[in-house]
């Protein structure tokens, strides 16, 4: 599991393009702090308490549905990415525009193209996700419980 600290949008599109609806927020939202660092501390604390291995890193998104090429992986490594995937970034951008606090945890399911001798396949992704499921659920349960307690405490003041 990797706690997302920032992202690189390599999809070639931005979900905010097109018509603008002011009720969703600024047309040009600040993307400096997409992933909430205070909430990240809660994730890290719960991972430690649950003895769950949680890395931190920058997530780069490609549009998919094909896996990345070895050249693309070398490129994103030079750009500072720690992991690549095909989801999360558009949702984080829109949530940020709407003023919603964002946290991201990615399940790293395989070594990227060219990093091992193995062929990449969706079956491996599904199998790895199934293996990690228990830890991911435990992490989210702990975080949700802590956020719930924080909200109850704040409401009682």
Q: What is the number of beta strands?
A: 4
Helix content range: 40-55%
Shape: globular
Overall average residue pLDDT: 88
The number of helical runs is 4
Strand order of the largest sheet: 3-2-1-4
Q: What structural category arises from helix and sheet content?
A: alpha/beta
Q: Radius of gyration over alpha carbons?
A: 17 Å
Can you tell me about this structure?
There is one protein chain. It is built from four helices and four strands; from the N terminus they run E-H-E-H-E-H-E-H. Strands 3-2-1-4 form a four-stranded mixed beta sheet, covered by helices on one side. Helix 1 crosses helix 4. With 157 residues, it is α/β, with parallel strands linked by helices.
Could you name the key traits of this structure?
157 residues; alpha/beta; four-stranded mixed beta sheet; 4 helices; 13% strand; globular; disordered C terminus
Describe this structure in a few short sentences.
With 157 residues, the chain is α/β, with parallel strands linked by helices.
Task: Describe how the helices and strands are arranged.
Elements: E1 2-9, H1 37-49, E2 55-61, H2 70-79, E3 83-85, H3 89-97, E4 105-106, H4 122-156
Parallel strand pairs: 1-2, 2-3
Antiparallel strand pairs: 1-4
